[in-house]
From TrEMBL:
It is a multi-pass membrane protein. It comes from Flavobacterium rhamnosiphilum. The chain crosses the membrane at residues 6-27, 39-57, 77-95, 107-128, 148-180. The lineage of its organism: Bacteria, Pseudomonadati, Bacteroidota, Flavobacteriia, Flavobacteriales. GO terms for cellular component: membrane. Its main location: membrane. It comes from the Bacteria. GO terms for molecular function: potassium channel activity; proton channel activity. Pfam families: TMEM175 (PF06736). It catalyses: K(+)(in) = K(+)(out). InterPro entries: TMEM175-like. This is DUF1211 domain-containing protein.
Length: 190
């Protein structure tokens, strides 16, 4: 299979995920700006999830860009990642609908954690396929961001049982970490 087909399919799925998330935000009954207040939690959860899906889309692009050949492990690893990402709209809607209740924050964190693990599996399979001495293998190296994210997700899930605000702040911090582009990757794939 051609890597362009893999990337196009993944881009389509990610676009559908974002579309589903925005369709969950219904137009309020009233016509005044104050009628929009009820949408605030849904909008905040949508923004955070949009950022996460955008981060995955961006990093997936660079990951696939460094790929020279596709095999079955990569295809299944990619589908595994897309499966977990496709659950983000459910947890996003649930969080927004129930004002970031503890259980909703737990589910959101679990889905983020499993998405991150799936991404690492895809990344490892690509490096195995391309070789540790490939450009991608050299650039990704020890993947400190990935490991830190996993630890923070576990922390966020733990705190979600006690304090949903702390949990939310942790999920936001992980998003901020990934919003800072990795200059090593950008330099190589310009």
């Amino acid at each position: 299979m051609n890597k362009n087909r893999l990337e196009a399919f993944s881009d389509g799925v990610l676009a559908i995920i974002i579309t589903i998330m925005i369709l969950e935000i219904k137009v309020p009954e009233g016509h005044n700006f104050e009628d929009l207040k009820i949408l605030f939690p849904k909008f905040i959860s949508y923004i955070l999830s949009f950022i996460y899906v955008g981060i995955y889309w961006n990093n997936h692009h660079y990951l696939i860009h460094g790929l020279t050949k596709v095999n079955g492990k990569i295809l299944w690893s990619n589908l595994h990642l897309l499966f977990w990402l496709s659950l983000i709209p459910v947890s996003t809607g649930w969080m927004g609908e129930h004002y970031f209740a503890k259980q909703t924050m737990t589910l959101y964190g679990v889905i983020l954690l499993l998405s991150a693990i799936a991404y690492i599996i895809l990344q490892k399979n690509i490096i195995l396929n391309e070789g540790k001495d490939s450009l991608l293998g050299k650039v990704l190296g020890r993947d400190l961001k990935g490991k830190a994210s996993i630890a923070l997700y576990f922390l966020g899930i733990f705190f979600s049982f006690f304090n949903e605000l702390i949990s939310g702040v942790i999920y936001f911090i992980v998003a901020l970490i990934w919003l800072i582009p990795d200059k090593r990757v950008e330099r190589i794939f310009k």
